[in-house]
Amino acid sequence: MASVAEVRAAVDAALQQVNEGQAAIQAAREKLGEAQQSLAAALDGSAHDAVGTAHASLSQADQQLEECFTATLVAVEAAQTYTATL
After folding, report:
1. Burial 35-68 (b: 16+ CB within 10 A, else e)
2. Distance CA 63, CA 78 (A)
3. 29 within 8 A of 65, measured Cβ to Cβ
4. For the chain, which residues make up each domain, given as ranges?
5. Class assignment of domain 4-85?
């Protein structure tokens, strides 16, 4: 059985990985925002259904990434709460 120190160290390592994942999520959201701006500029004035679909899909992807990021915050809080009880 792992010692308390070993468990805390393992949780800390996992939280570091979560932090790296959060940074990747934020970077992905930034890139999607840039892509959406580029797409808007390139397709300005177009009323084609595909343009609306593309914009809606990018917005949905951004929203889902935000939800993903929020879920990681909940996970971090839960892990920190757990280690505080050790």
Report:
1. ebeeeeeeeeeeeeeebeebeeebeeebeebeee
2. 23
3. yes
4. 4-85
5. mainly alpha
* Longest alpha-carbon distance in the chain: 65
How far, in Å, CA of 67 to CA of 6, rounded? Answer: 31
Torsion from C-alpha of 64, 69, 75, 81, nearest 10 degrees: -140
pLDDT one-digit tens code per residue, 23-77 = 999 999 999 999 999 999 998 888 889 988 999 999 999 999 999 999 999 999 9
Q: Which two tokens stand for residue 28?
A: 């992905």
- What's the pLDDT score for residue 18? 98
pTM of the full structure: 0.87
